[in-house]
Amino acid sequence: MVETEATGIGYVEEDFRVAVWARVYLDQVNHSTERVTNATYGVMKTMAEVRQALIQSDANSTATTAVRWTGGSHPIESEDAPGWVYYEDTFRIGYEIVWS
Q1: Which residues contact 72 (CB under 8 A, 6 or more apart)?
Q2: pLDDT at position 100
Q3: Res 33: pLDDT
Q4: Where are the domains of the chain?
Q5: Closest CA to 49 of 22, 14, 79
Q6: pTM of the model
Q7: Highest-pLDDT range among 3-12, 33-42, 86-95
Q8: Residue among 45, 50, 47, 36 nearest 85 (CA)
Q9: In whole angstroms, how far apart are CA 58 and each of 8, 11, 19, 55, 93?
Q10: What is the mean pLDDT of residues 36-60?
């Protein structure tokens, strides 16, 4: 933030990322996409619940602009830990700042 002699209100937007690790034992031999797509346990199901909770949230009336989804990654399966899948989404939120 730049300090000036003026007082006023500004607007700031910030991006933040949310990462989800999910472990599913439905495919022990790694021959299907159940770990990613399973409607109950897959990483995409978990991330959908996170998105539902965050999108349009106003951070308990703190945000000026509600949380918006800006992008997602691709599910990444861990080679070192079978059954674990990683997924990441990026969100943006805006809020006013007051300086004096």
Answers
A1: 47, 87, 88, 89, 90
A2: 64
A3: 61
A4: 8-99
A5: 22
A6: 0.72
A7: 86-95
A8: 36
A9: 22, 15, 20, 9, 8
A10: 79
